[in-house]
Amino acid sequence: MEISVKNLGALAWAKFELGNLTIICGNNNTGKTYATYALFGFLAFWREIFRIPVSQASMDQLLRDGVTRIDIRTVVDDADRIIKQGCEAFKEQLPKVFASAEKHFEATEFLVTLDKTDIHPTAAFERTIGAAKTQLFTVSKKENDPTVLISLIVEKEKLKVPSEIINRAISNALKDIVFGHLFPFPFIASAERTGAAIFRKELNLSRNRILDQMSKMDKDADPLDLLLKVYEDYALPVRANVEFTRKLEDISKKESFISKVHPELLDDFTNIIGGMYRVTRNDELYYVPKRSNVKLTMDESSSAVRSLLDIGFYLRHVAKPGDLLMVDEPELNLHPENQRLMARLFARLVNLGIRIFVTTHSDYIIKELNTLIMLNRDEPRIREIAKREGYRTEELLSPQQIKVYMAEKTLVQLGEGRRKSRLTFVAAKIDPEVGIEARSFDKTIEDMNRIQEEIVWGGEV
After folding, report:
1. How far apart are CA 340 and CA 367, in angstroms?
2. How much is the mean pLDDT over the chain?
3. β-strands 147-152, 134-141: how paired?
4. Does residue 353 contact residue 185 with C-beta atoms inside 8 Å?
5. pTM, two decimal places
6. Residue 334 · residue 303 · CB < 8 Å
7. How far apart are CA 404 and CA 369, in angstroms?
8. Dihedrals φ, ψ of 61, to 5°?
9. DSSP string covering 425-461, please?
10. Predicted confidence band at 224 (pLDDT cuts at 50, 70, 90)?
11. 153, 135 Cβ separation under 8 angstroms
């Protein structure tokens, strides 16, 4: 999947491809977060709002006969138009995604491009849709069958659900069958995540006050408008962090596939934060340091503990294979050694089937990923280094798994011999023997080394 943007925040234009591990590096104010928020917004919009049209003929047949079939080959053949339509509809949502004025996005372009050879509809599918604890209809697809069968499981006379809702449920199933593996479920940890951890109680109180006002308001007013005002000044990823943090008590009752099958990965995460998160039945959130009975509130905990809260709960309670975990500046508040451990954790997740998307200013994260690439060679000397330094096979990466982009200025030809410097993304080279060519960091480090060497050795002959 390739994403193209133009005139988005500081970015004049950029193209980037979503890999198993996608990294965007660069200076401040170069468009990294804009690209991240736009991608998260599109994936959320695609999954929650955008619909693949279901023909009126199919709907009429379902409501008349209790059954209808849809040939998914028609959806695959129409994929380019469907995705383009989705991108155009998403552009209208950009002011809401960024909580900014419409005028800032008048010239913005956003486009997702798929290679049709990458579209592989789900072989078999089964989903039951219900309302108010009543099962209404099923959407199913058998292996080697190009059609999707929609069947009512209640008598037509008892079907009280509006056809619009049925249409949406069928559309969501078609999206999952045809595009589910290409447009993953996104989970984002924004750079503002630390604040949500501290103020979760206050946010809950604010929301509850709004709900109380809604119960007393005029019956002709729209309660949804009032509820949405609670978070309307925040960008969508920040709102997502706030809502996730607000629901930790319910979230903590679930178990992710990592908790069930790979608990050792959670042990690695515990080593990074130096303890465990705990949510009580009264929705009290605590951090408990290892080998201690002390319970610390988020106010009392370190900034590193707060910055990794969302990621910790996602890994333990929510994560599924095929997800896209997006982290804006994973190095926030972390010691260099823990930044290295985060890089190794990301590699483990990639090898378990979770895609990772990060923006970073951390040379330590990039250098550690380089190590994981360079150690992935079947040579006795390399294997010995990996064993001696404590690296595991499940942490190693191949260059093919990684896409790295540098946000930097390039000269653009404007015509008549005129050129202008514009911000864009430039793909970095990734070599199996030396890793990622991270020019953004290398020049800064080389300048520092040069100055210090001159200070120390400059007077010697």
Report:
1. 8
2. 86
3. antiparallel
4. no
5. 0.87
6. no
7. 11
8. -65, -40
9. EEEPPEETTTEE--HHHHHHHHHHHHHHHHHHHTT--
10. very low
11. yes
